[in-house]
Amino acid sequence: MSNPKGFSLIELLIVVAIIGIIGAIAVPNLLQSRAAANEGSAIASVRNIITAEVTYFSTTGGGKYGDLAKLKTAKLIDDVLGSGGKDGYTFATPTGDGATDDFTVTAVPTTVGKTGFRGFFGDATGVIRYSADGSAPSAASSALGK
Q1: pLDDT tens per residue, range 72-107
Q2: Nearest residue to 76 via CA among 109, 40, 100, 52
Q3: 74 within 8 A of 56, measured Cβ to Cβ
Q4: CATH number reported for the structural domain that contains residue 21 in this entry
Q5: What's the total number of domains in the chain?
């Protein structure tokens, strides 16, 4: 009498099929979770830029707000955020001579739907606003937390 050891081909195929089904269910949820985490990071980064702008205005700027380069040079934001991109989002402040009487900051996903779903906007009021379609929002956009 023979005593076979190991798994049959059918058993292995069933296991592979089950793993494939689980993967097909889990991957979209993981991608959506990543986009949500990127949005949370973007909101925190907009808040950090607003705080840095107010600090720059009060200390280094001599009554003027600075762009990302000025904030980075003054060491009020880190080099990653100062480069204009972080965690799947692109950040922008008005540029020019680097010092303005007012400021806005926008954060838009680099790839809408993949790195994030919403765009964010902040200004001197401290209110962070968003657009649901990932475009650059404005002061007229909906406020977070309403």
Answers
A1: 999 999 999 999 999 999 999 876 555 667 889 999
A2: 52
A3: yes
A4: 3.30.700
A5: 1
